[in-house]
Amino acid sequence: MAAMSARSGLFHVIDTRQFERSMLDRLCRLATRARALARSRDGARRLRELAPDRRAMLYFTQPSTRTFLSFNSACHILGMHTSEIRNPSISSEMKGETFEDSIRTFSSYADVIIMRTPEGGKAARAAELMDSIPRPVPVINAGSGPDQHPTQALLDIYTLERSLEGRGGIDGKTIAMMGDLRRGRTVRSLSYLMKNYRDVRLRFVAPPGLEIKQDILDHLDAHGVAHQSASRLDDVAGELDALYVTRLQSEYGEEEPEPEPAEYASYAIGPEQLRKFPSQAIIMHPLPRGPELSPSIDNDPRVMYWRQERNGMWMRVALLALIFDLADELEASG
């Protein structure tokens, strides 16, 4: 059992199944509050005064642009100091130090460990270790192999709520996820969160061999979340409120053959596909993108992935504030 903060009920962030609706709603409110404060010099100063005595270790041994920069920026917005290791070749792991010893060393110098690894399960191992030592610190999973990417899912929820707020938010909406669903950890994490919303309908659109895994479907069935699978986007485009597109996750090197480029191209979004969407449907993508997302649609008002990217910084500010019991203070600021 992961340790928990005394007031917020949140300590480690490893798996999106740990989140309930009330906490998701509060995180969204905190993110909006933080971004509103940051618009003024005085508000930005008050944000920096929330955690000047805290230190974060960003342990990113898997390449990252958005997740690293948004976490680093989120820490600085709250006044936190950051240290980083982005290449294990410059750490004592090159001398044979174990992963567990490295993590315990980080906990001696930091108040939170934010980690991203190409291997699955490592964030959970780090959290388990922290729960067994005298001075545990929170571990935040910033991407753990093909397993999960919980903070991406949190910012995706925030983006969906903000984009759909004029139509009642996520409740009652039809959301499609398209692309490499078998290995897409962002899809896994976001799918787990759908249990918290009423009458959501999910549509999974994937090439043969890249379909969503059965454990996700079993989870959705257990929580009464309606879902269907489709082989073509055209089969579901007209009913959608949101489409979540993912790239081919070839870095995980599974034994199954990759689809041919021409085959995967039929799961891409461009101007022609957009014409089949409802006028209010939104398009999301966790980025980085590949050929599945044409730059020619970037300025379409339904496109949300650039807002989604910036939303990540504010959601991570909110998450850190909740972990360190700063939420009440943040809400009272101003």
CATH topology of the largest domain: Rossmann fold
Number of beta-strand segments? 9
Instruction: Tell me what the CATH architecture of the largest domain is.
Output: 3-Layer(aba) Sandwich
> Under the CATH scheme, which class of the largest domain?
Alpha Beta
The name of the CATH superfamily of the largest domain reads Aspartate/ornithine carbamoyltransferase
Strand content: 5-15%
**Which residues sit in consecutive blocks of at least 5 with pLDDT less than 50?**
none
Number of domains: 2
Spatial order of the strands in the main sheet?
A: 7-6-5-8-9
Shape: globular
**End-to-end CA span:** 37 Å
**Mean of the pLDDT scores?**
91
- Over the alpha carbons, how many angstroms does the gyration radius reach? 20 Å
Q: Give a quick account of the main beta sheet: strands, pairing sense, barrel closure.
A: 5 strands, parallel
* Sheet/helix structural class: alpha/beta
The helix content is 25-40%
What pattern of helices and strands is seen along the backbone?
HHEHEHEHEHEHEHEEHHEHH
Number of helices: 12
Describe this protein with a few key phrases.
334 residues; alpha/beta; Rossmann fold; four-stranded parallel beta sheet; 9 strands; 37% helix; 13% strand
Describe the 3D structure.
- It is a single chain.
- By secondary structure, the protein is an alpha/beta fold.
- The chain folds into 2 domains: 16-148 and 312-332, 3-Layer(aba) Sandwich (Rossmann fold); 150-309, Rossmann fold.
- It is built from 12 helices and 9 strands.
- The chain has a 5-stranded parallel sheet with strand order 7-6-5-8-9, with helices on one face. Strands 2-1-3-4 form a 4-stranded parallel sheet, sandwiched between helices.
- Helix 3 (66-77) links the parallel strand 1 and strand 2.
- Helix 1 packs across helix 6 (150-163) and helix 6 (150-163) crosses helix 7.
- The mean pLDDT is 91.
